[in-house]
Amino acid sequence: xxxxxxxxxxxxxxxxxxxxxxxxxxxxxxxxxxxxxxxxxxxxxxxxxxxxxxxxxxxxxxxxxxxxxxxxxxxxxxxxxxxxxxxxxxxxxxxxxxxxxxxxxxxxxxxxxxxxxxxxxxxxxxxxxxxxxxxxxxxxxxxxxxxxxxxxxxxxxxxxxxxxxxxxxxxxxxxxxxxxxxxxxxxxxxxxxxxxxxxxxxxxxxxx
Length: 208
Ligand SMILES: Nc1ncnc2c1ncn2[C@@H]1O[C@H](COP(=O)(O)OP(=O)(O)OP(=O)(O)O)[C@@H](O)[C@H]1O
Hints:
By secondary structure, this protein is α/β, with parallel strands linked by helices. 30% of the residues lie in helices and 25% in strands. The protein has a single domain, classed as Rossmann fold (3-Layer(aba) Sandwich).
């Protein structure tokens, strides 16, 4: 299994719960607004600590309440791509990409800057500032930064939501190639049934 997740967390007056085990490929996380999809990704990433349960990714335990195990964020080898890209605004694209690369331990790196740039077709963007990029270009750079950080799995939270539907094809192609050529397991939050159908190998509903 690529992701084995069984967690609960009380947030305010709500209880966020998720329990699923999924193989590789792209797993769509769906659920009504407020069901807890982002909170579940944050628990897997290590940004939010579950009250109970465990998180295992690619066979490696990242969190286990019963054992008192809780790997810090930077050691989980997960790439996180947000709705709005969240590139560092004061760094050009090349420096944004290298930021992830420098964070990774040398033995964790499995793609070079040149390989990532060629894979995502972002060579013309390297000297640009994030503010000058379209939403789709920024998301391709965000994917590149995640790949360069030595990630062994990706978490994507509505990565197409802020991109004009007519201009989504480049980023969709990139995600499909990460799924099929690089074979990175992905958890992918979306509200869009067409996106789920096109990209997803399996579907998990949060909060039902
Ligand atoms: N730090 C917090 N303190 C209290 N409540 C919180 C906190 N963070 C999130 N919540 C609540 O937990 C619930 C789940 O939020 P979350 O953002 O995970 O849902 P979601 O399924 O991703 O929603 P959406 O589809 O709207 O993005 C919501 O009711 C939210 O208001």
